[in-house]
């Protein structure tokens, strides 16, 4: 009957489905996924237990912060940026790590 109406359904053997939003991920392990084609319009139907995960975002590093670390620790821009990233945006810790 579905074929007469122009509807085709295909099961997809998926292991995991991840939907990313700006601040979190919706994770569906061992989902049941069906691809439905209705007159050329494809949709996916996903069922399963949804788990939410927060996305860790790297702190933004301003040019001013990089310059401060470069001047205080007397290092290159690349070294300053890497130290700030390693110290999760803590400028004092970045400078101290570079001066050791």
Structure notes:
The chain is α+β, with helices and mostly antiparallel strands. It contains three helices and six strands. The chain has helices spanning 63-73, 77-86, 91-99, and strands at residues 7-12, 16-20, 24-29, 32-38, 41-47, 51-54. A hairpin with a 3-residue loop joins strand 2 and strand 3. The longest helix is centred in the C-terminal third of the chain and has 11 residues, at 63-73. The radius of gyration is 24 Å and the shape is rod-shaped. The termini are far apart. The relative contact order is 0.13. The model has no long low-confidence stretch (mean pLDDT 91).
Portion of residues within helices:
25-40%
Cα distance spanning the termini? 74 Å
Gyration radius (Cα, Å) is 24 Å
Please state roughly what percent of the residues sit in beta strands, choosing from under 5%, 5-15%, 15-25%, 25-35%, 35-45% or over 45%.
Answer: 35-45%
Number of helices: 3
Strand order of the largest sheet: 1-4-5
Total strands: the figure is 6
Strand/helix succession: EEEEEEHHH
Our count of domains comes out at 2
Summarize the SSE layout with pairings.
Blueprint: E1 7-12, E2 16-20, E3 24-29, E4 32-38, E5 41-47, E6 51-54, H1 63-73, H2 77-86, H3 91-99
Antiparallel strand pairs: 1-4, 2-3, 3-6, 4-5
Helix pairs in contact: 1-2, 1-3, 2-3
